[in-house]
Write a structure and sequence with these properties.
Layout (H helix, E strand, L loop, with lengths): L1 E5 L4 H10 L5 E5 L16 H16 L3 E10 L20 H12 L6 E12 L4 E12 L15 E3 L11 H7 L1 H16 L4
Parallel strand pairs: 1-2, 1-3
Antiparallel strand pairs: 3-4, 4-5, 5-6
């Protein structure tokens, strides 16, 4: 069975991606299982750029095929912000709650609906092959958080066509529509076609 590192220490993200990739013959390990993980500075200006930086640094450190992603939320009224700064919108070590509060504060002077989209870029890198995939889900930001499932901006995001926020959806529901699910399902297909083929 092929071992692949998922370049994340985010347990919520790891759970989602393990679920998506559970039907292919790989052993998915995360950075939580390694000591001396190198520092990753996400200096890219795009989600794909940051995902590539993560994958290349981790592959070069451990010489094990690596998948990585970068994702975030883009709000139309804020000209696409927080974008690549989603995880550190309220500061370098900001909590999800602090990021959510800053986003709501910035939107309070704008009329509803606050249309937005979650975006995810996922990559696979093994020193030779670089595979890239993309996913997005459109929706809107609501005034106060709802739901304890998920993480990040999930409790504030109401996907189009749903009455539940991403924070209220069960994992299997979320994995049918989420930006990360779309990106990693596409990446899974690419891995099957070009890495795992017999």
């Amino acid at each position: 069975m092929s071992k692949i590192i998922f370049a994340t220490q985010n347990k919520g993200k790891l759970k989602e991606v393990r679920h998506i990739l559970s039907d292919i013959k790989i052993e998915l390990v995360s950075l939580l299982e390694f000591d001396d993980v190198p520092e990753i500075i996400e200096s890219g200006t795009t989600f794909e750029g940051n995902a590539k930086i993560k994958a290349e640094i981790i592959f070069n450190a451990y010489r094990i095929p690596t998948i990585a992603d970068d994702s975030g939320i883009e709000v139309d009224q804020l000209n696409g912000r927080p974008g690549v700064y989603s995880a550190r919108y309220a500061g370098e070590n900001a909590t999800d709650k602090e990021n959510n509060e800053k986003l709501l504060c910035e939107l309070k002077n704008f009329p509803e609906p606050h249309t937005a989209k979650f975006v995810c870029s996922a990559v696979y890198f093994d020193g030779e092959k670089l595979l890239t995939a993309y996913g997005e889900v459109k929706g809107r930001i609501i005034k106060s958080p709802r739901g304890k499932n998920g993480f990040g901006y999930d409790p504030l995001f109401l996907p189009d066509g749903f009455s539940k926020t991403s924070g209220e959806l069960e994992l299997n529901e979320k994995n049918e529509i989420s930006h990360r699910a779309k990106a990693f399902n596409e990446l899974k297909t690419l891995i099957i076609q070009s890495v795992l083929k017999t």
